Amino acid sequence: MNLRKSIKMRAAKLATVLLGCLVLFVLTGCGPGQRELMPLEVGKSWTYHVIAGLNTPVESVKVVRPVAVDGVEGYELNGPLGVSRLAWKQNSLIAGSTANLIFHPALPLLAANGKKTAWAGEVTWLGRAIKATADISQEPNSLQLSPRTLETIKSTVVLHLPSRSLFLETWFAPTQGIVKQIQRGAGNRVDIELDVVQSS
After folding, report:
1. 159-190 residue pLDDT tens
2. Secondary structure (DSSP) of 78-142
3. What's the domain range around 175?
4. Bridge partners (DSSP) listed for residue 123
5. What pTM value is reported for the model?
6. Contact (Cβ atoms closer than 8 angstroms) between residue 180 and residue 143
7. How many angstroms separate the most distant Cα atoms in the chain?
8. Where does the pLDDT of residue 21 fall: very low under 50, low under 70, confident under 90, or very high at 90 and above?
9. Long-range contacts of residues 25-34, Cβ cutoff 8 Å, at least 24 apart
10. Which end of the chain is more exposed for a tag (fewer CB within 10 A), N or C?
11. What total number of domains does the chain contain?
12. Neighbours of 124 (CB within 10 A)
C-alpha cells in the first residue's frame, strides 16, 4: 500500500469518527458536550418572557448556590416559579426539585444515551409524598424564537400522578441552557410557557 493511499484511508476513518461524534452530539452530546446543553454555575442567569394566563411578565432565573442532588454536586436555581435543584450525573441532567415538586430519586430531564427513559419514585407535592412514574424522551428540534432559529434538544417529560398526568416540554440550546419551556396540565392545556429573552 503506497503512502498516498494509506493517508486517504486514515483520513476517511477520521472523517467517519468525527461524523459519528457530531451525530452523537446532536442526539445526546459527545462526552462533556452534553453538559453544554444546560450550563450550571453560580451566577449564571436567564431572563424569560413568562406566559401564564393573562399575565405576561418578564422574569429572571438565577443559579444561586451549590447543593447536593441525588448524591452529586448540583445547583439551586431561584426564579418566579420557585426553587429548582438540578445537577449533571454521569452526563444526565437530573432534577431533585422543580418549583413546588420534589422528586425521589431525582427525575431525569436529559438522558446521557439520548434514548427514552422511564422513571419511578415518589413526588412530594404540597407536603404530601405520592407514588409516581414518568416517561422521558428527547429529540433534535429546530426552534423558532423570533428573529432566530435555534438548533436545540427538546426534552418531553410526562409525569403520571395517581389523579392526573403533567407534561413538561423543555428546549435546550448548547451553551445557553433552557431557551423555552411549556408546562401542560389536564386536556393538554398550557399552564405556563417560558421563552428566553437573554442568558448571561
Report:
1. 999 988 999 999 999 999 999 999 988 766 77
2. EETTEEEEEEEETTEEEEEEETTEEEEEEEEEE-TT-S-EEEEEEEEETTEEEEEEEEEEEEEEE
3. 3-199
4. 103, 130
5. 0.79
6. yes
7. 73
8. very low
9. 26/140, 26/151, 27/114, 27/140, 27/153, 28/91, 28/111, 28/112, 28/113, 28/114, 28/138, 29/91, 29/112, 31/91, 33/174, 34/88, 34/91, 34/110, 34/112
10. N
11. 1
12. 14
| Distance separating the N- and C-terminal Cα atoms of the chain | 54
Pairwise CA distance, residues 175 & 33, whole Å:
9
Q: Which amino acid is at 141?
A: N
Query: C-alpha grid cell for residue 90?
Result: 454521569
User: Cβ(91)–Cβ(114) under 8 Å?
Assistant: no
C-alpha cell at 151: 438548533
> What cell does 77 get?
436555581
CATH of the domain at 13: 2.40.360
Residues in the chain, overall count: 200
Cell triple for 158: 410526562
Q: Phi first, then psi: give them for residue 169, nearest 5 degrees.
A: -110, 130
- Name the residue among 23, 18, 21 with its Cα closest to residue 10: 18
